[in-house]
Design brief:
The complex is a heterodimer of chains A (481) and B (329).
Chain A: H1 2-8, H2 23-34, H3 47-58, H4 87-102, H5 107-122, H6 204-207, H7 213-226, H8 234-241, H9 249-258, H10 269-272, E1 288-290, H11 299-304, H12 316-328, H13 344-350, H14 363-373, H15 377-388, H16 391-400, H17 423-433, H18 435-440, H19 442-445, H20 449-452, H21 468-480
Helix pairs in contact in A: 7-8, 7-9, 15-17, 17-21
Chain B: E1 9-11, E2 20-25, E3 32-37, E4 41-46, E5 51-57, E6 62-69, E7 72-77, E8 81-86, E9 91-97, E10 102-108, E11 113-118, E12 122-127, E13 132-138, E14 143-149, E15 152-157, E16 161-166, E17 169-178, E18 185-190, E19 196-201, E20 205-210, H1 215-219, E21 222-225, E22 228-231, E23 234-237, E24 240-245, E25 252-256, E26 261-265, E27 270-274, E28 282-287, E29 293-298, E30 315-320, H2 323-326
Antiparallel strand pairs in B: 1-30, 2-3, 3-4, 4-5, 6-7, 7-8, 8-9, 10-11, 11-12, 12-13, 14-15, 15-16, 16-17, 18-19, 19-20, 20-21, 22-23, 24-25, 25-26, 26-27, 28-29, 29-30
The chains are: A mainly alpha (481), B mainly beta (329).
Protein name (chain B): Mitotic checkpoint protein BUB3
Subcellular location (chain B): Chromosome, Centromere, Kinetochore; Nucleus
Keywords (chain B): Cell cycle, Cell division, Centromere, Chromosome, Chromosome partition, Kinetochore, Meiosis, Mitosis, Nucleus, Repeat, WD repeat
Chain lengths: 481, 329
Amino acid sequence: MGRKKKKLSKPWCWYCNREFEDEKILIQHQKAKHFKCHICHKKLYTGPGLSIHCMQVHKEAIDKVPNSLSTRSNIEIEIYGMEGIPPEDLKEHEKMKQGKQAGGGGSGGANAANNRAQSPSSGEDEPPPKKKTQDTMMTNPPPGMPPAGMMPQGMMPPHPPYVPPMGPPMMGPGMGPMPSHFMAPGMPPMMGPGGPMGPMPGAPSQQNKPLFPSAAAIATSTTSSAAVGADFKPITSSASIGPVKPTFPAYSGAAAAAGSTPGASSSSASSNSDPPKVNLINTVGASSKIIHPQEDISLEEFRARLPKYHVPEPAPAPAAEATPTAAATPVTTPTPTPTPAPNPTVAVSVAAPVTSTPQPMPAAPERRPMMARFPMALPMSMGQMSQMNQMSQMGQMGQMMPGPPTMLPGPPMMRPALPLHHPAMIGGNMGMMRPPHMGIHPGLLGMPPGAAMGMHHPYAAGPPMFPGPPMITPMMHPRFR
Amino acid sequence: MTVSDTRTEFKLKSPPEDGISSVKFGPNSSQFLLVSSWDNSVTLYDIHANTVRMKYSHERPELPACFQDAVHSFSGGLDKTLKMFDFNSNTETIVGSHDQAIRCIEYSPEVNSILTGSWDSTVKMWDPRTNRLVGNYSQPDKVYTMSLCGEKLVVGTAFRKVFVWDLRNMGYIQQRRESSLKYQTRCIRCFPNKQGYVLSSIEGRVAVEYLDTGAEMQKKKYAFKCHRIKEDGIEKIYPVNAISFHQGYNTFATAGSDGYVNIWDSFNKKRLCQFHRYNTSISSICFSQDGTALAIACSYMYEEETPRDPLPENNVFIRYVTDQETKPK
């Protein structure tokens, strides 16, 4: 009996019932057999550790401990060596050992050997489900899997960065003297006078109506650049003076008037000349960029405007709405090149004059409205045209340009969103319309506009490009002033 | 428990030809998925067999679709028309129309009504038994998203307005709110426990809000950033296009134009997991009713200034999720 006692005290592995001489070796065994990541072979310390590793590093879910008995595969139980084994399993094991000793003597050892023989083949490199579950193992594995809740929480590795609440919670009511950019997160950024509608109970940021309206206005304008909190801009510091000296009529004025003018770059003349109706989304600063069309409409509305989805119906309403947008929305969204083809509308509307040259044709009608809108862009594109040495097309263009837009009722107004085959056009257009946006991305500054736009046009590299840079310079102005 | 041997994810065969606007699982099983697309079609997939079960079309691109029950779907889109389709008889019925495109459709079992939200700034309620218009309720602006919370209807519109209605009494607006996020509202989904909703914006941010207007409850609301990728020193911030709740655990998945799906535990404020990056934007996601499967619609959404060329292909992935990925720790 004394001998048996000794045996009982041997450490054993909960996952595979194997016994070891020493707990150190047991731990080594567990790390190698049960807690090893099948993808990168990293040895973790516990089941939950392994599962979190796989989830976070490889984005794979592991639901079972590798090489474990089917009843002992729970990955949520935290076991390290002999620590953490559910007490009932400990008892069970003890009982079993005693039974074994009394009964079939060596079977335990045989099983262990069995295990040893099989586990290497079943492969540390294999995904967990591969493990042989049923084995020839102990016929009566301990009943009752411990509930998942037993898993201790303390040792979990840190979770991926999680961003704590941003706006409201930060704002103690008594934070008066804080720099006003702290007020920003709660401020309605681009709502004009319409303002907040309902009560936002408990939202301090909404509630604390600015003591100094001008400061609020500044905050509004500032946040647009500091919104993401990437870095505080110099503007912010000047804004923080705001509350003390509300004598920045320029700032408050600009913020109020421009409302949706991106950034604090109120000096961008062109954005002021935008039709007021277009709401742009605020830009977020130089170090970050929202991947979204600039106009504040949903992606679906934006997409619905693509020529591809147009039907030849006299839809005056959307056209009217789109008109200003077409101007300001950058239209930068040239649709993919295949568009002209699936667009029967265009073809129909201009089909009369030129049916023979399908290739350049679709480009023509969409250019026209733009030129009508931006006479300044015209000479440039004319230059471009001549570069193209396509006299016939020239002729068409000449023919079409004077043509009043009424030629194409409604839809053509929205056409500018069509593919822009002309880099120079884009350059011009960009220069005219959206300095703030372009100017903001340093990465784009060095590039010629065509390249920046990612247009792979045969003419992109040619001389027609050079009208670009001069147009860009004014863009840089607000930033490097 | 699902067998983990059939590894967790597969692609639907014969996906729509154009952008996918919404995916929705059927009400009772995780077998059927309703997919609507910009190629004008609404398709019913059998995801067990990975086949197309049924397909019908609209005249214009189709935006939302929803199940009323296992055999009826409602759909609408740019053609402004609400259609009902009966899968048993394979017949379609035009129920009614809006003045502008229909952006979202929900079915409320509580009051047995179909609700449609449109860019014409109204929500209309329809009786699916008679296919009649029950009511027309004007909203502050174009409806972008809406979600049901028991008898409550939460409507998110352009310019960050949020209206909360009570379906039992649509005579007045129960709450007029404004999004606590600074940017355009992209998606709203209500907690299955009906306490509140989650709202996402185009600026990689998600807000957790509570319907109870008491100060206690409102203190608990918060927002967090997500779906942002830092590349070459510039942080790219992506729209969070879709949210879907796990019906059992009150955890939710968000999907963005960055091509990632994240699953969040909003009570412990933890991210439970992130899937691998998909090849393009994710336009819509949906948990099955039993929470074992997540449908993920990948299609390019023209967020970028220069559209990709060639356009990435449109795909629907079905991913079987485990408790580990969806259950609060």
